[in-house]
Amino acid sequence: MSPYMFTPMMLAQTNSQVSPYYALLTDVWEETPAAEREKIMGDDGNYLSTKTLNKNTKQIMSDYKMIQYDITSGNQYTYQTDFYKTK
Q: Which end of the chain is more exposed for a tag (fewer CB within 10 A), N or C?
C-alpha cells in the first residue's frame, strides 16, 4: 500500500465526509492496491501495465495524475475551487 493512502483509508473507516480530493484518493485506493508514479501494483504484488487496466481505473488514474500535475507544476486551478473542502 502506498503511504498516501492512509488518510483515505482512515476517512473511509470512520465514515467521514470527504472533499472531492479525498473522494478521488479513495477511488485510487479502491482501484489499485499500490501506485507510485507510473507504476501500479496488482493484488498479487506484481506491477501492472497501464494497458491492462480497465476503463474505470484508467480514468481514475488519469484524473489523479491531472490533479497532481495541477498541484505541483500547473496553474493550481484546483486551489481556486472547493475541491479540497468538505461540504
A: C
pTM (predicted TM-score) = 0.81
- Give CA–CA dist 48/43, Å, rounded: 10
Percentage helix, strand, coil, to 5, in the chain?
Answer: 55, 10, 35
Angle at 66 between CA 63 and CA 72, to 5 degrees: 140
Instruction: Write phi, then psi, for 81 (nearest 5 degrees).
Output: -125, -175
83 class by beta-carbon count within 10 Å (0-12 exposed, 13-18 middle, 19+ buried): middle
Provide the pLDDT for residue 37.
66
